[in-house]
Amino acid sequence: MGDLTPFAPWLDRWGLVPDGEPFQTRYNMNWLIPVRQGDSPAMLKIAPSEHERAGAALMAWLDGDGAARVLALEGDALLLERLPATRCLADMARNGGDDEAMRILCAVGDRLHAPRARPLPAGLIPLASWFRALAPAAAAHGGILDASLAAAQELLADQRDICLLHGDLHHENVLDGGERGWLVIDPKGVLGERTYEYATTLCNPDEATALSPGRLARQAGVIAQAARLDRERLLRWTLAHAGVSAAWCMADNFDPAPALRLAELANALTDAG
Q: Which domain holds residue 55?
């Protein structure tokens, strides 16, 4: 068994027994470990950033409606139900089911974006703030980032159909919940135009898939039909999102090349009309 130090206080407090090896996520460096609470399988996540705590609070607010259930939440620690996950959207997309996976993601988005009787939770991130890293990156590096920034500024100034957004809706953040259907995990909690949600899906599930010839054009059409969106506007949001994704990669010392390439592809498609 790996190092349990990050989890120790919560294992004791919530009566949890480790049920697998601990691991750390690549991009945000959160610690996770499969556990059991009595007979119930769960996942314990330790995420010290304010950004992650906001996402955990949103998961609790969703209360299992289209999302995995929160079993406990305190400080940096989040205990989630561990879903059966017998099917995987990323595997589906890589093995001939790309269209089907996209339609599932659109259906999940519809459920998440649907109006609810209660007020939206506090602390949602305005979409304009979500893009704050793009302008300095464009000023420093230019190139396709200039086009991404122009698209972002135009779209943010004229947002439509504003609603609660997951903020990182993609194949790995939607899990098979068995009889409960497909359920989201790891929301970022953004407030903004509904079309933006699907720009992230077009950048996933991996570099090889997202950048394969003709894929962006095809899946933009699939999403536009399934989610009832304007295809051209979706591609503009994809150009903007790929740019800010590249900016985040640069800031965190990850390779920005795949995001920059996707921005170029989206830009070419918008130019083509």
A: 5-81
